[in-house]
Amino acid sequence: MADGLKGFLARLSTDDPETNGPRLWVMFAISLLLVATLNWYAMVREPSVVDVDELTDYINEVVKVEGQLISWVEDPYNSGDDRLDAIIDDGTGVVELRWYRPAELPPIGTNVTVIGDVIEYEGRMWLQALGAGAMNWEQEDIPDAPLLAISDVALDPESYAGEVIQLTGFLSESIAPDVSFNSAYLGDHPSYGNSEHQMHMIMHSSTGEWIESGSKVTVQGILSYQQRDLRWSIHVQGPEILLDRNHPVEIPLLDWAGQSTWMYQAGSTVDVAGVLSIEDTDWWLSGSAGSPLCIIPSDEDIDNGNQWEGLAIQMRGRLVWNTAISSWCLDKGGSTNSELTATSSIDDLLLLLSANPSAALQDSNQRYVVSAYMKYALEPSVEDESAYFTDSPGYTPGWTSIAVTIPGPRSSWLEAGQEIIANVSVAWDDENMRAELLVHEYSEGQKTNPMNLLWSDGATNWGYDKNKIVRINGLATEDNGTWYLSEPGSDKRILLQTVNNCIGLDELHVGTAMTWEGRLRQVEDSNSLTMVYTLNDADVDDNDNDGLSNALESAFGTSSNNEDSDGDGISDRQEYIEQS
Fold first, then answer.
1. What was the pLDDT predicted at 407?
2. 451-540: which CATH topology?
3. Which of 109, 224, 354, 541 has the most CB atoms lying inside 10 A of its own CB?
């Protein structure tokens, strides 16, 4: 047979014209066989296992990465895509897997093998895969996560760093079903005030259902230390949060006198009692104080509307912010209207910006409704003004702030530390090379109490309270037609600009040291070319508006909360004048 093959090949290599035709057909057949063999090899060959830190050498190639699944999120941009983004850590680095038409995922912490194309675009690199075979794992790759109490982690968090653990606790806030990136606290008691420990929890991917504040849940995730916020956090997946449906959830009853605190119940199911009024299709519930609450009725409510109108009733629904009318609403119909939004803490948006700034900046039309605090006071203006939102009303170690642009015109001051509920979008500030929030609408919340200043604090420390409402004890004195507020017994003084009809400068009060309240400003002194402090819109305390300050009423022995303390028909001020 060898001789026959040898002879056949010899005939193909000759120049005999009789063999030209058969020779061409044989060469064509061999080339087809070679191409088919190469295609078959390309299909059945195993991709190379590559370390993450070496992926730059395999751009546009199919590779295999073996590592730990540490995070994932479905439909990251809420665009309806059948896509899942997963983060894989193999010890040499982390890589993002963009998985289209994904299959079932294992728990966080599972050792997995992923296969995909290495994509590089504008300096970013990821793996891209399609279909169910992109991620594989075995049963023994799934970690055994110990079930711990929050107090166990609190005693020694370092011993659980980077490990997969399970925690059982109570949610500090309600979780919306369609928020793909969120954060909350997991406490060991349904009531925040009674909790001994609080574990910060970062949720990746939406839960798919509402989970109420105070719900008892079990979560599994990886414990890590957040250097930016100086705290420990557990990273969990929203769909994997296990809800204990047998645990009763306490529904709060809203207080009409405390509407400024309703923001803390935003997104939660609440009870509220009041008188129902119906005007065409508008439903409103009015209470003993504050603004009426709009009602989004259910179909059953609409059927009973004629019977309920004008009655004092108690309703239960979800408290949401209506951006169209800038008002709180009680959603009883489960509406999906985009104008109805459960507000979230500014922390959630800051966390999203920190974790994936490109995603937050990609859609400039995406709106967020957040609750935050003013970092500095902002004066009235007809123009748009720059300011800062922060995550706490006053300075705390690790507090975080972000630049915002607040629209004009504004006729009143926004105070430092004041609560704000704002409808914002994320934009890029080219001039300052940073992300900022554009405020489209906002609602003012509770203002902080005035700061008490001491003369001994000095000018430098007073600078931290510039433009704020402050209280200073001092003596009003006049010098060449200019009023000053001075420290009794010293030469320290600041300019004093009072309100109209200020009682602190009348004949009864001049010469008496009292506590003055006003806005601390800094202005230029044209004579000395220096900056000096002035207390603007200042006046002394007069709780009962009887023209006699609280300080004089206390010294005189009358009540500062009653214009006629002894009820004899003569005001306290007149009695003071008569006895002076």
1. 84
2. OB fold (Dihydrolipoamide Acetyltransferase, E2P) (2.40.50)
3. 109
Percent of the residues in the chain that have a pLDDT greater than 90, as a whole number: 5
Class of domain 344-444: mainly beta
Domains of the chain, by residue range, sit at: 2-44, 52-141, 147-243, 256-341, 344-444, 451-540
Say if residue 511's pLDDT is above 50: yes
**CB half-sphere exposure, 465, CA atoms < 13 A:** 22
Q: Comparing 344-444 with 451-540, is the CATH topology the same?
A: yes
What class is the 147-243 domain? mainly beta
| DSSP per residue, 37-101 | HHHHHHHHSPPPB--GGGGGGGTTSEEEEEEEEEEEEESTTSS--SEEEEEEE-SS-EEEEEEES
Residue at token pair 């007073």: 462
Global pTM exceeds 0.90:
no
Q: Which is more confident, 490 or 333?
A: 490
* CATH class of the region 52-141: mainly beta
The more confident residue out of 330 and 228 is 330
Closest CA to 440 of 346, 341, 324, 291: 324
Q: Is the dihedral of CA 188, 189, 192, 193 positive or negative?
A: negative
Res 520 pLDDT > 90:
yes
Q: Is the pLDDT of residue 469 over 80?
A: yes
The sign of the torsion formed by the CA atoms of 212, 215, 218, 220 equals: positive
Overall fold of domain 256-341: OB fold (Dihydrolipoamide Acetyltransferase, E2P) (2.40.50)
Place of tokens 């005007």: 279
pLDDT per residue as tens digits for the range 60-72: 888 889 988 877 8
Retrieve residue 201's tokens: 């929890």
